[in-house]
Amino acid sequence: MTARHPLSVAPMMDRTDRHFRHLLRLVSRRVLLYTEMVTAKAILSGRREQLLRKAEDEAPLALQLGGDDPRELAECAGIGEAWGYDEINLNVGCPSDRVQNGAFGVVLMKTPGKVRAAVEAMRSACSLPVTVKHRIGVDELDRYEDMLEFVETVAPAGPARFTVHARKAWLKGLSPKENRTVPPLRYEEVYRLKEAHPELEVEINGGIVDLDQASTHLLHVDAVMIGRAAYEDPLLLADADRRFYDPDHVLRPTRMGVACAMLPYLEAHCVEGGRPSAITRHMLGLFKGTKGARAYRRVLSSEAVKPGAGPEVLVRALGALDAGPELQAM
Question: How deeply is 326 buried, as exposed, middle or buried, from its count of CB atoms within 10 A (0-12, 13-18, 19+)?
Fold first, then answer.
């Protein structure tokens, strides 16, 4: 099966907001991006401009929804389509206390029939692809057979893709951060799922740190989702468009080029009354591994939060770099 989006960047709370997505679009035009998870109840409460605002140049972009009520999720899927999103994703993987208390996120893996009903309702309410992001297991339901039963229960609803975080989740005893690192990765079980159901589009997620690893996974599954590695070093995606979408793609962004391209965006944000730190906090990893990166981060971290700070903070941070030939080649 040929996936429309062989590579994506995971939805990450407090990370994948519109400012970070703008940054990533200066690195890759083709990789599928996600919003942070937005709860259906929050959207229906009416704060849509705040929650759903995006720019046209962020496409392709998926809206990730959290919730457990099929009617609410269906209404939000229709709203997401009206706002111009390209896909709607249902979160069945987040293990935080917030989603546990709301009986959604990874808790829903324990009630696959409810997930099936939600996907059916969402698909009936919009013409966009509806996808599901879930874990390999949850609590005691952590055998391969449990995941297979979950997928086989949901699949008749017609989700366009199953994105599988190849770690189980423990709802008690592990923090959300620990649930991203402590349970062991079980990639082979995701591969096995694809082998059992070649007709389904299966994407793998969890612990993938570079494009070489992504290429290896694509020998077994349809798509790969990269998470925090792309946040910590956005230029990790610099060669993604050529490697995974268009072999004739020749433009390859540089770190300094991306930083300079962010300046007009930062200036416009500040003119609107926004704080520079809302953007610069996402740029701390932009020069990862280069000379002067520590000084660059120090300027951004300490000065962007000061009262009256503006775009000049980024200019000063770039001035702290040792911008030699090796930097331009990164």
Answer: exposed
**Using CA atoms, how far apart are residues 237 and 241, in angstroms rounded to an integer?**
8
Count the neighbouring beta carbons within 10 Å of the beta carbon of residue 238: 20
- Interacting residues of 274 by C-beta distance below 8 A, sequence separation 6+: none
315: number of Cβ within 10 Å: 14
For residue 12, the surrounding DSSP H or E stretch is none
Return the structure tokens found at 141: 């339901």
Residue 260 annotated to the active site: no
- Which candidate in 94, 126, 260, 270 is catalytic? 94
| Euclidean distance between CA atoms 60 and 56, whole angstroms | 9
The dihedral over CA atoms of 115, 214, 240, 89, expressed in degrees to the nearest 10, equals 0
Q: Is the dihedral of CA 222, 91, 81, 246 positive or negative?
A: negative
Reference 16, options 85, 67, 75, 62; nearest CA is 62
Amino acid of residue 252: R
In the block, residue with structure tokens 């070489």 = 212
Strand residue runs (E) in 179-278: 202-205, 223-226
Q: pLDDT tens, 204-259?
A: 999 999 999 999 999 999 999 999 999 999 999 999 999 999 999 888 899 999 99
In angstroms, rounded to a whole number, what is the distance separating the alpha carbons of residues 25 and 23?
5
CA distances from 215 to 212, 224, 245, 293 (A): 5, 8, 12, 29
pLDDT in tens, 272-314: 999 999 999 999 999 999 999 999 999 999 999 999 999 999 9
- 138 three-class SS: strand
Buried b (16+ CB within 10 A) or exposed e, 187-218: bebbbebbeeeeebbbbbbbbbeebeebeebb
Tokens found for residue 250: 């020749």
